[in-house]
Amino acid sequence: MTIVEWIKAFVHDISVGIVVTDAAIERPGPIILYANPAFGQLVGRDPVEIVGQSPRFMQGKETRRETLDAFHRTLSSGERFHGYVTNYRGNGAKYRAQIDCRPLRDAEGGIQAFISFEREVVRRVGRPAGSSGGRYGPSSISNDLLPGALRDLGVFAATASE
Fold this sequence. Notes:
- The protein is an alpha+beta fold and about 160 residues long.
- It has a single domain (about 5-150), classed as Beta-Lactamase (2-Layer Sandwich).
- Helices cover about 25% and strands about 30% of the residues.
- Strands 1, 2, 3, 4, 5 and 6 form a 6-stranded antiparallel beta sheet that branches.
- The chain is globular.
């Protein structure tokens, strides 16, 4: 069983958008190997049509180059990226995404792929909250935004360097 098959078996029905890409950082990569239905709903496209594309299809005029450069540098160094980016849905509507992207390593420590957890966030009104989300909060409110396994992995939790 491949890493993509393992991930698909565990996250297909999770309400958080999950996308797995290959490890190629330079253009034309990375290439999407798997996207769960929640990711397809987030970006407004059928997950089957997303596979084989680069995640760059979501970028648009308000996607900040500085954020993309930081994302690229972080992944190139084999580290986890956690941040916020403006993306665009299939119909052209922009949205703000919170992204937690991590390398998936093989037994020798080499990067085999990247897994990205994504959810839409909205700007908080007033003073930023003291949580790791700062000035952004999830766009939908739920008592269980993250399944226990993702919460245990610290998905969407800020790292000490942030």
